[in-house]
Amino acid sequence: MRKILVIGSGKSTSYLLKYLLDKSASEKLFITVGDIHTDTAKKLIGNHENAETIILDIFNEIDRKKAIKNADIVISMLPVSLHIQVAKDCILFGKSMVTASYISSEMQALDAEAKARNLIFMNEIGVDPGIDHMSAMQVLNRIRDDGGKVILFESFTGGLIAPESDNNLWNYKFTWNPRNVVIAGQGGAAKFLQEGTYKYIPYHRLFRRTEFLEVEAFGQFEIYANRDSLKYQSVYGLDSIRTLYRGTIRRVGFSRAWNIFVNLGMTDDSYTIDDSENMSYRDFVNAFLPYSPSDSVELKLRYQLKIDQDDIVWEKLIELDIFNAQKPVGLKKATPAQILQKILMDSWTLDKTDKDMIVMYHKFGYEKDGKTYQIDSNMVVLGDDQTYTAMAKTVGLPVAIATLAILNGKIKTPGVQIPITKEVYTPILKELETFGIQFKEKEVPYLGYNSLNN
Amino acid sequence: MRKILVIGSGKSTSYLLKYLLDKSASEKLFITVGDIHTDTAKKLIGNHENAETIILDIFNEIDRKKAIKNADIVISMLPVSLHIQVAKDCILFGKSMVTASYISSEMQALDAEAKARNLIFMNEIGVDPGIDHMSAMQVLNRIRDDGGKVILFESFTGGLIAPESDNNLWNYKFTWNPRNVVIAGQGGAAKFLQEGTYKYIPYHRLFRRTEFLEVEAFGQFEIYANRDSLKYQSVYGLDSIRTLYRGTIRRVGFSRAWNIFVNLGMTDDSYTIDDSENMSYRDFVNAFLPYSPSDSVELKLRYQLKIDQDDIVWEKLIELDIFNAQKPVGLKKATPAQILQKILMDSWTLDKTDKDMIVMYHKFGYEKDGKTYQIDSNMVVLGDDQTYTAMAKTVGLPVAIATLAILNGKIKTPGVQIPITKEVYTPILKELETFGIQFKEKEVPYLGYNSLNN
Known about the structure:
The structure is a homodimer. Helices cover 33% and strands 23% of the residues of chain A. By secondary structure, chain A is of the alpha/beta class. The first copy, chain A, folds into three domains: 2-122, 3-Layer(aba) Sandwich (Rossmann fold), CATH 3.40.50.720; 131-257 and 352-390 and 434-444, Dihydrodipicolinate Reductase, domain 2; 260-348, no CATH class.
């Protein structure tokens, strides 16, 4: 039996474990899931003969080293900041390792040691990052192999609510970490390339500079820019590209309404409000509006942000019940972002029967033989239920498939890496298709970037 | 002769030195001005027999210690970050010290040692901070001594252009450090108290939440909130106050136009633009607007910020020549804030004959015998020329007067301090009046805070 150690059994491990368990007999796998709390893992594993759970505290060095030493390969599904200790032990005991997280500088620093010991440290192999890398590189390389020169690449991903569960005015629910949604886009101006020119959008304008998108059978979406669209420019081999833009997908209208919170200052996570515990939702809103002895919080907000009385964004605010003077915030010394998150969780938490949806969309513009072309490529994955979500499927399956491919010697190149080589993405994308994770491509006229038409 | 060492001879030392030189014979003073560059100091001193300049590099420990050891009292007009080494030497050699800067935590940490050696470390005794502390505390204490309970305190200061030199559409020129103007308000939400409620304004709303102000004989002004209006709440003894607001004064209309730069992201100082050296002013503006194959930068800006064609803010932008495609930015890897500063300096640099103006305005609301009252108090100081500016006068004179008062034993209480005790502010405010630095008070009806009327 080949022994796979999975550290961490959070939301995104359901499909990961299912895949490995389903293959365990034919591939001779034994899976050990280690976590401080093993309840979730126990449910997912059931009575499967080729798997076990162990209580594993990642900060307990003896237990951690023992578990890693005993494995043939390690999957770390821990939060990104906790991978590094696992990685160092993997170097120590000569084990390859797989994560779905962005490569930290500490992880990158292990590259030489990993190569020296012929170990594969595969990272960023979830959905975003992960499937975005693989699906983009497959088309980019195909265009280039065919003699084309890539001049435009736009790439968008969104974790959304499935159409059948989409029943609020925001067309949004928390299908993943709510905190990341509340603070999305903060930390500096968004930077990208449009027709050869660097463009910058400050945070407070980010949700007013959206683009639109049509996905066949799923309707219209909108996109706001990611912080750094240029992060993978060189890695993808796009140094001479003219337009490079990456973004996050929401349903149309989300961003304009969300911008009200940004504009008021409610998404700020940099200071705490002293008396937040005793505030009502209404008091919270009022903290961002001038005092008035007579005017209502509602009128002050409408006036400050110039919201017409028949504007649909107003209904979105009402739906969240943010003007309620009876509902207590109930959080001690909380930041505005923490309070807003709590208010949103009242309305945007999934119902038991709700299903999620992952949407990914790429645009590839290229020149060949003096003509311009464009390929649009999109993927939509729907969740089955709240255990087997689209998020868990698109994050967990690439991790699981990559792990088995490494064990079986199909992925051979050692080092700290992300899935951008043909060796890695070709077999993984092919197998993902058998699980319904596939891209639809179509040729469209190349229009270049156009702020109003795109 | 009593020896006064003045370290640093920047813009704000003209009146400081004039005061000390004028008193040098009667008060038996000898003034030594130390700086790396002594040209400015030499011009200000001329051939005065009771003064000298020395070349002093503050980072040269031997020279610094020698100069401080040789003095009876030290005035540091250095940038705030450089006071601490002077202060430590003053502790070492037993000299009192005066600065116009905010107390740093390192400076505050010397309090016990200063007290043990019976030394006075007087700080924040320029104009803002300085005259604001003294003039506010004088009225606050008078109200309290008279049995009143202070319920509102608002305090505003502005360094502006004098009416006779006010000849641009922004009614503003750089009379002080341009960089501080460009990045003003950044670093976190503005916080203040209105009628017992904490209020917060994010940076990108700061210049749209202004208040108005009328100063007799000088017309209308507007105010935007300082970062932390509550900094001196306890120090001033205002823990139970209902409204506490501090702000910066501009002419009406400045903030609305300035907000265009904030909104676009042009005041951001947190990242650099790679190709800034080769940009024109027009390219710089365009970096914050979407690409278009046809639309002009002007139309894109109007559209993005919804600026009507007959809106006066547009003329203000035109006056700054920001759409000029010929004018090069010419700064290597500059931040947006640095580039904007350069553009503004083309238009807002003082002409040789221009004069500056300092405006300060306090509102004191209080209750007494069941009734409410309000006192408004304001000071306007005009500069004489570009050496003897209103800024140099209001910063330098309090420093100089305090220094002499310490030498003469009129200010006795040792320790690291700011000028908020009667012992300090009473004689200084009285003497400032003889230089035309005086407050006009009037009683007005107490209206409380009202967002539209205030």
